Amino acid sequence: MENYSSDILIKTLRIERGITQKELAEGICSQDTISRIERGERLPDWHTFDKIMQKLGEDPHKYYKSVISADERRYKEFETELNYLVRTKAYLEAEKRLDEHLKGNTYKKGFELQTLLQCKAACLIGRALSGAEEDKASINGNEAEEAYKYSIKALSVFRPNFDENKIDTYVLSLQEMNLINTLAIIYSKLHGVEKTAEVFMKLKTSIDNNTFIGAAKKDVYLQLLSNLCQCFVMMERFDECLTVCDDGAEYCAQVFDAFYHPKFIANKSICLLALGRIEEAAGFIKQACYLYKGQERDNELNGFIKNITDKYGIEVGFEELKIQSPDKEEP
Alpha helix (H) ranges present in the chain? Predict the structure, then answer.
């Protein structure tokens, strides 16, 4: 789409979705910047354009070649490399690369800076929760506090007065949703699972109320619901977990997501077992097993079966997929 006009595109989509310039700008840039972009007085950089399109429910990558500069392309390659290092848990190598750029003059503003700070926080919390294989001796319990500081710094790039107690009132960008998801996980290390669940619930409220995010919210929303389920199970708030499981399964059906669906079904069966509703749980146990097995996710399947066997004495036989409780067998 080589000849598209970003000013007309953004203004048209914003009006179609009934969003004000102030609402579109929130968490991304100033209202004046949106106004200047729509008047054609300013061409948005890739990251600003990316966040605007996400909030408008559009895929920004459809316009990638039309708006990205050579410098931005180099940054995107660096960002991809960092994300790979974090996903593969090579935290020390990722931090080394990050620190080189954070100390220099490169990528020290706007979304580039926010992304680097977010990546730094992800490295630190990853090490705090699981340990860095490269240097286990370096894990001393301070990573969570440092991760918290970097997360707040990242959130403050576009919200200088960011208030954790007002998360549910914010109109968040996708980047901010990911940051707050990270922040909640950090709380599990600093303040316990109750605080984590509180932040997750505020984030859920914000996303539920933000009706014009569209498809861009899919992955972060499903991850949020999955994390919230785990929190409620840990706190033995099983009835609340059942509600979230149903919401998650319904949303998976809406967006045709197969990855998270078995997670919600498995968590629902665990909650039903904990509540003593064994016969009702049996059907969901079978469904979760079929889904995991059909997707060849053997590690998750085996972990699920071990969990319900160890905690509730449920035996799962795969020849005819029979569920046997300590008291009775169900075909």
Answer: 6-16, 21-25, 31-38, 46-55, 64-67, 70-87, 91-103, 110-130, 143-155, 174-190, 193-209, 218-234, 238-255, 261-274, 278-294, 298-312
